[in-house]
TrEMBL record:
TPR repeats lie at residues 64-97. It comes from Sorangium atrum. SMART domains: TPR (SM00028). The lineage of its organism: Bacteria, Pseudomonadati, Myxococcota, Polyangia, Polyangiales. This is Tetratricopeptide repeat protein. It comes from the Bacteria. Residues 1-26 form the signal peptide.
Amino acid sequence: MRASRWFFVMLVGCALSGVPSGAAEAEGRPADLFQLSYDAEAAGKVQDALAALDRLPAPQKDGYVAELRRGWLYHKLGRNKEAVDAYGRASALEPRSVESRVGALLPQMALRRWADVEATARKALQLDPANYLASLRLAFALYNLARYPEAATIYGRLAEMYPSDVEVRSGLGWSLLKMGKGGDAARELRRVLDIAPKHALARDGLRAAGVSN
């Protein structure tokens, strides 16, 4: 709320003084420019959110947080190759960062670079062995690489820790189905439909297994 008021006051001030808003923003403190970026994203102006980062002074402009945020914003704009590059720069600046690796998984998945997803997820898991998102996305990559037993192992481990997670159980069901274990797959997919009866992937899986919903 405080930041929104600041943004409003800044815009009004510029309008009254005739000072171009871009010039005023360029003179802002790094914290203000980061907030400007957050506010622009919240307003659906993702390109403006990205542009605010380019107005940051050195060293923040090319710093870890700016690169991490560029990765996310590029991904939101569908510029996934640039998103991967930005997350890579963030990881280089903070070599033990887990969040930059986990963040990079989304644009890598959008690009269907499954081998890269596997490598990035495994690096994140080296740093944080219990990381949920890295595990989930690694399992999804292995499934797409047709390494179904490995995917099923990871999905199964996640299902023990997150028994109500329908994405995990659906992934486990489909992995088992691809392994030719129709009965086990149907059991997992039915567990999904027991709590999410409209789950499309679970319904499709049961049909593929030759089992009625």
